[in-house]
Specification:
The chain is an alpha/beta fold and 392 residues long. The protein contains 16 helices and 15 strands. It folds into 2 domains: 7-267, TIM Barrel (Alpha-Beta Barrel); 317-390, Arc Repressor Mutant, subunit A, CATH 1.10.10.920.
């Protein structure tokens, strides 16, 4: 049995992730693996094609392909097209699969976007982060607010009808009014999806070093909560459905919500996924594994005919339970209690009776016969609530 065997997940649709580890410039907050050495792109692409073939014995059926990074749009459309073509040739991918490409303003042109569309990409995730130049400069982005607007317009002209935007809030000195100004510009552009991420301090990043040195200070918890609440209220008023702590999808005219990220929902639902490229992670119950976080090591291993395995683990039943709780509580739907009992042979309400009672009394959690989900207050304190349930 190979490490790609599907065990008990063969009847669940999987997600395929490909990590493109190149950036023009590193942002101060980012701790994802990437390099600015664009001279390694050619060797990486050769190695990726070999990994796609080596991994082609996976027995999953996929309904999503997500090409992320890094900055995948540093690659030429022909390179992205070759990746998509190879994936479709080697893996069982449904014809209606969601195929997402992460792109950043400042690396694009109308012709490039049109070629990505022709190469099989049907969804874009655009790393806008802000429409204000001072914010973009602080974050280390290479584009301007004008270029962000321009990129979205080009994407529409290229035929993309499923566009997500990434935005960041909680910058030093930011108040709700400044943040709402970014959201106002976003909704005018009518994206199908918005990801609104709170700026976080990740160990080892330039942002972390600046905070440690006392040169920067993030907003207080009170301010962060005001920003969180203003995000939800503003987007709800503009017909966006808040389906995960940081993610919002535009409602259709019939009241349905067709624009939720199919791929990202797999992570929160503990669905199987396969990751290719340096640092990419894979999960097929009960096993998780990940590739080396080094382009050079990745290329070297594959040149030797080996998969670039950097590490792996087999989750215990208890570890799987804790992940279902932690990830499920991030979503609007929460934890499916019937599925929990079916998968683990335990009644959730009985196992966590004491904690659930306390969390309900504090207004952090709602419990129905079918679901356990966080209230808005609970979502604002997700880490603490999840720790209370998973730290026992």
């Amino acid at each position: 049995m190979t490490r790609f065997a599907t065990d008990g997940d063969s009847d669940r649709l999987g997600g395929l992730y490909i990590h493109i580890p190149f950036c023009v410039k590193k942002c101060i907050y980012c701790d994802f693996y990437s390099t600015i050495d664009l001279g390694k792109i050619s060797r990486f692409l050769d190695a990726l094609q070999r990994e796609i073939k080596l991994a082609g014995n996976c027995r999953l059926t996929f309904d999503s392909l997500y090409i992320g990074g890094g900055t995948p749009s540093v690659l030429e459309p022909a390179d992205i097209g070759c990746i998509v073509e190879s994936v479709l040739g080697q893996f069982d991918v449904l014809p209606e699969a969601e195929i997402t490409l992460e792109v950043n303003p400042g690396t694009l042109s109308p012709e490039k976007l049109e070629a990505y569309r022709q190469g099989g990409i049907n969804r874009l995730n655009i790393g806008v982060q802000s429409f204000h130049n001072d914010n973009l400069e602080f974050l280390g982005r290479i584009h301007s607010g004008y270029q962000a607007h321009e990129t979205i317009q080009w994407a529409r002209q290229a035929g993309f009808d499923n566009i997500g935007l990434d935005l960041i809030y909680g910058l030093p000195g930011q108040d709700p009014g400044q943040w709402i100004a970014d959201l106002e510009q976003a909704v005018v552009l009518a994206p199908e999806h918005l990801s609104c991420y709170m700026l976080t301090r990740e160990s080892g990043t330039p942002l972390d070093r600046e905070i440690k040195a006392g040169r920067l200070r993030l907003p207080t918890g009170h301010t962060m909560r005001k920003l969180f609440d203003s995000t939800i209220d503003f987007l709800a008023a503009h017909d966006f459905y808040h389906y995960e702590i940081s993610n919002f999808a535009r409602l259709a005219e019939n009241g349905r919500c067709p624009w939720m990220s199919r791929h990202n929902r797999k992570y929160w639902s503990a669905d199987p996924y396969l990751g290719l490229g340096p640092s990419a992670h894979s999960f097929i119950q009960p096993r998780r594994w990940w590739n080396f976080s080094s382009v050079s090591e990745y290329v070297r291993k594959i040149a030797a005919g080996q998969l670039p395995l950097g590490g792996e683990e087999t989750l215990t039943r208890e570890q799987r339970m804790l992940e279902v709780i932690y990830l499920g509580l991030r979503t609007k739907e929460g934890i499916d209690l019937r599925a929990f009992e079916r998968n683990f042979g335990l009644t959730f309400e009985k196992v966590y009776k004491e904690e659930l009672g306390q969390l309900q009394n504090e207004g952090l959690l709602e419990l129905t016969p079918a679901q356990c989900r966080l209230t808005r207050d609970g979502m604002a304190f997700h880490e603490a609530v999840a720790a209370m349930l998973t730290g026992r």
